[in-house]
Recover the amino acids of this structure.
């Protein structure tokens, strides 16, 4: 498929609905680097049509496109794939209009992630208005659902905390579901995770020089994590999830405690001694051939600066001194692997492009420098 499309000089026309938000801006950055994509339609809630470079000066001389309020007929004639970078409850107003006309959709909101609409209604306090498409949307976590994503027309892109928790736990819950007694996820996120236009998000005064927990054991990503882990384990998995807010812009780090019902030394057959090294090897094997997952060696653990501005997910694992405990420490950039990077990775799979096309880190220093200059607005 890749060869055919390259040979035909295939250029995919894409639209971004909600281009002015954090994830919309990040999508613009990524898609401008993509060799087989033409950004052809952009929306924001504006009083008059405005050039995207008026909203984001860093796109001056890079993208000459006007951004306007959503207009269905203009959208339909302009693009074939749409990224919905909208808040939940808004996406499900737009997605059915596009799907009905045969357009492909990658929704970054939570509207199509939870397969049980009652669960959605309970956690998001809103009626689900598009149950037909809810059934069809594929959960877009590339390393877990790659085959389905390749065939999909409609993707429910994961939540940022959820993506990291699921990737961190997938090998363990899939390979050793019977021995898992409890899972505690202690998560810390930069403030961009709440979105630029968040109404329930904290003010800068609350964030600056501060660190605090919020939505303790009641965050809306909890059922999403449980849904996906339960599918992998083929049994019901429950988690305790406590998010915290960091006084930095981007990145999520999770420290996950998995308590076992048996000592880790007797995991599986009872004969094998499960050490940190064996767990690490199990993770390396599970994620072999996955370009964006990096499993740390024994005694090494990720930090946010390892993954910020990249689409990587880094995971470190340790068998606890307490023989019934496994500790997993993992990190992603919430706006990349946790949102727009994952969305572009999904698009690449859907269209048979190279999986890492348009995704950072870029391959050469020259390319990296180019991005840095564009982002900071310098032209040297
Ligand atoms: N931020 C993250 O790390 C992250 C990670 C994973 C998933 N997500 C999800 O991705 C989606 C976008 O997140 P974000 O961080 O980019 O949010 P954001 O910065 O607040 O941007 C959302 C954009 O949606 C537009 N919008 C809001 N209400 C609208 C409405 N009623 N009709 C049309 N447009 C509307 C706004 O456009 P205007 O600017 O034109 O008003 C805004 O720029 C959310 O569902 C979020 O949960 C975010």
């Amino acid at each position: 498929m890749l060869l055919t499309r390259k040979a035909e000089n295939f250029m995919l026309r894409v639209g971004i609905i909600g281009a002015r938000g954090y994830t919309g801006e990040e999508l613009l950055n990524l898609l401008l680097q993509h060799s087989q994509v033409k950004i052809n339609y952009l929306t924001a809630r504006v009083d008059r049509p405005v050039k995207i470079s008026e909203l984001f000066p860093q796109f001056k001389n890079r993208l000459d496109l006007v951004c306007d309020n959503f207009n269905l007929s203009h959208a339909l004639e302009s693009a074939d794939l749409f990224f919905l970078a909208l808040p939940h409850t808004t996406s499900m107003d737009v997605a059915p209009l596009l799907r009905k006309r045969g357009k492909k959709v990658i929704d970054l909101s939570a509207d199509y992630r939870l397969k049980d609409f009652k669960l959605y209604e309970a956690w998001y306090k809103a009626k689900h208005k598009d149950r037909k498409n809810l059934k069809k949307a594929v959960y877009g976590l590339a390393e877990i659902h790659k085959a389905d994503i390749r065939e999909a027309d409609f993707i429910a892109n994961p939540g940022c905390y959820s993506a990291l928790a699921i990737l961190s736990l997938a090998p363990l819950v899939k390979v050793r579901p019977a021995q898992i007694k409890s899972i505690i996820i202690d998560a810390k996120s930069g403030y961009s995770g709440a979105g630029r236009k968040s109404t329930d998000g904290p003010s800068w005064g609350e964030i600056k020089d501060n660190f605090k927990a919020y939505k303790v054991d009641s965050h809306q990503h909890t059922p999403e994590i449980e849904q996906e882990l339960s599918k992998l384990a083929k049994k019901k998995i429950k988690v305790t999830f406590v998010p915290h807010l960091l006084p930095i812009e981007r990145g999520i780090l999770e420290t996950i405690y998995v308590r076992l019902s048996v000592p880790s030394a007797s995991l599986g057959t009872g004969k094998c001694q499960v050490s940190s090294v064996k767990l690490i090897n199990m993770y390396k094997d599970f994620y072999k051939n996955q370009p964006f997952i990096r499993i740390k060696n024994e005694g090494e653990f990720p930090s946010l600066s390892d993954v910020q501005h990249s689409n990587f997910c880094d995971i470190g694992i340790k068998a606890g001194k307490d023989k019934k405990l496994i500790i997993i420490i993992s990190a992603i950039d919430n706006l990349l692997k946790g949102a727009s990077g994952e969305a572009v990775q999904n698009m690449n799979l859907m269209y048979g492009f190279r999986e890492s096309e348009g995704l950072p880190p870029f391959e050469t220093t020259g390319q990296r420098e180019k991005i840095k200059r564009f982002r900071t607005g310098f032209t040297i």
User: Anything to note?
Assistant: The pocket of NAP is lined by residues 18, 20-24, 44-45, 85-88, 90, 108-109, 159-160, 192-193, 195-198, 334-335, 338-339 (CB under 6 Å). The chain has two domains: 2-158+337-376, 161-334.
